[in-house]
Amino acid sequence: MESIDITTNSKYSGVEYEIRVKLAAAYRICAYLKWDEVIYNHLTARIPGTEHILLNPFGMRFDEITASSLVKIDMDGNIIDKGCTDWGINKTAHVIHTAIHKARPDILSTMHTHEVNGVAVACMKEGLIPISQNSMLINNITYHDYESISVDISEQERIAKDLGPTSLNLVLRNHGLLTCGRTIEEAFYNLYVLTKACEIQVQVMSMVGGDLSKLNLPPKAIQDSVQHIAANFNKEGFGVKEFNALYRIVEKLDRSFKL
After folding, report:
1. Which of 50, 143, 145, 247 is spaced 20 to 30 A from 8 at the CA atom?
2. Mean of the per-residue pLDDT values for the chain?
3. The whole model's pTM is what?
4. For residues 115 and 194, what is the distance between their CA atoms, to the nearest angstrom?
């Protein structure tokens, strides 16, 4: 498997530092792709073998995130390591993301954005429609109804229930997209494919004036075939090659995310 050089001085050692660098890179990649929204939205990663997760300090832009700026919290939202700021975290990050990490120990990383096309599809009753190859690559997408800004801790139970035991892609209706992965690379590539599928859908729907009867929907057998063939392209790990390709871009632009 292709490896990424993340060697540099750090107060963190081993697995935690590697997770910090990859997650910081994911923030920088999202900024590069213009999926960020000032200081809002969150990408998380669990530190393997612990009940601690990493996420962004509330006030830092995605393009500013570094390995050492990430905040470490426990599953109750308590700050274990504040990183290099005193800004703390956005409460909505705790409500949304720890709900998933607590309910799904198989998930290492979660990623939530308000990218405009993703929000647009989240506002459609039909949700994601299998009209493009990108949309057909997405397996077992689930939906969570909007309940206002996510500050009520009781919403965690409903988020976890709506994600379910196997889904890695959750559309937060009227809100945005949330993807998960057993690795940071997988969570990111799920986000990439889902975001691109939403972008295509928004453009197609504008072309047909929202008339679903004008859409060419491939048969279910074809949709299943797309997922089967795509799986053979990812034997090294879903999203690894794609994440590494984008990692090299942000590394070339600015290596400070490793600090």
Report:
1. 50
2. 92
3. 0.92
4. 11
Contact 122, 201 (CB under 8 A): no
Cα 79 from chain centre: 22
Q: Are 30 and 247 in contact (CB under 8 A)?
A: no
Decide yes or no: CATH 3.30.930.10 for domain 14-251.
no
Q: How confident is the model at residue 44 (pLDDT cuts 50, 70, 90)?
A: very high
Length of the chain: 259
Pull the structure tokens for residue 164.
Answer: 């379910």
The pLDDT of residue 165 is: 96
Element (H, E) at 79: strand 79-81
pLDDT surpasses 70 at 236 = no
Provide the token pair at 12.
Answer: 């963190």
Residue owning tokens 């809002």: 40
Element (H, E) at 52: strand 52-55
Say how far residue 48 (Cα) sits from the centre of its chain: 18
Listed by start position, the domains of the chain span 14-251
Other beta carbons within 10 angstroms of residue 48's beta carbon come to 12
> And the tokens for 138?
């997405």
